[in-house]
Design brief:
The protein is an alpha/beta fold and 199 residues long. It has one domain. A six-stranded mixed sheet has the order 2-1-5-3-6-4. Strand 1, helix 1 and strand 2 form a beta-alpha-beta unit. Helix 6 runs antiparallel to helix 7. The radius of gyration is 17 Å and the shape is globular.
């Protein structure tokens, strides 16, 4: 069944580690199948934002979901999205920051792979940093263990950002529906009985 793509305002750029592509529960491809303004690139490094995006881009109008060691609940309790200033301090109006952005970069891979992508792409340091502090634990955590409480699958992270950045809920809801379908397929394949061995 063909689904209509959602015409999101905020562009998403997903940098995917090559090994993550082989993961059965990888969610990045579902984002690009759901949203009109999402791009997935696979690799380890790109010289700059424009090259990764495949189009001209002003780094001052882009953000990256930051992978630092900050404890988001301690930084800004109750805020699901925290925007950091240059010194690592929370910015008082993260919604204002989100409204001014053209796009957000998401890093797709396990914790070690994500750190590799972060350090191999120093241009990410020029982007506004956002930290997620979700109220709910990762949905995908039922099928895959997450390393930290605030860790979400890439599709859940995208949905959380879009829920706060878009005028309406359509983009976020479409991503979570795509995740639910992916999880149902994964659960079904795990629950399927193995074929009987011939005598």
């Amino acid at each position: 069944m063909l689904r209509r793509m959602i015409d999101n305002r905020l562009r998403l750029l997903i940098l995917q580690h090559p090994h993550e592509r082989r993961e059965p529960l990888s969610t990045a491809a579902s984002i690009t199948e759901t949203l009109a303004r999402a791009r997935l690139v696979v690799g380890l490094s790109w010289p700059n934002l424009a090259r990764a995006l495949g189009a001209a881009a002003d780094p001052r109008r882009w953000a990256v979901l930051y992978l630092g060691s900050a404890q988001p609940a301690a930084l800004a309790p109750g805020d699901e999205i925290i925007a950091l200033g240059r010194g690592g301090e929370p910015i008082a109006d993260p919604r204002g920051v989100l409204r001014r952005l053209d796009g957000v970069v998401l890093i797709d891979g396990n914790w070690s792979q994500a750190k590799t992508l972060w350090w191999r792409n120093p241009w990410l340091l020029k982007l506004q940093r956002l930290i997620l502090n979700p109220e709910q634990p990762a949905r995908l955590g039922r099928l895959r263990r997450e390393p930290r409480r605030e860790a979400l699958s890439t599709i859940e992270a995208a949905a959380l950002v879009l829920r706060h950045a878009e005028a309406g809920p359509q983009a976020a809801e479409a991503l979570l529906a795509a995740l639910d379908r992916l999880m149902a397929e994964a659960s079904g394949s795990r629950a399927a009985p193995a074929a009987a061995e011939p005598d």
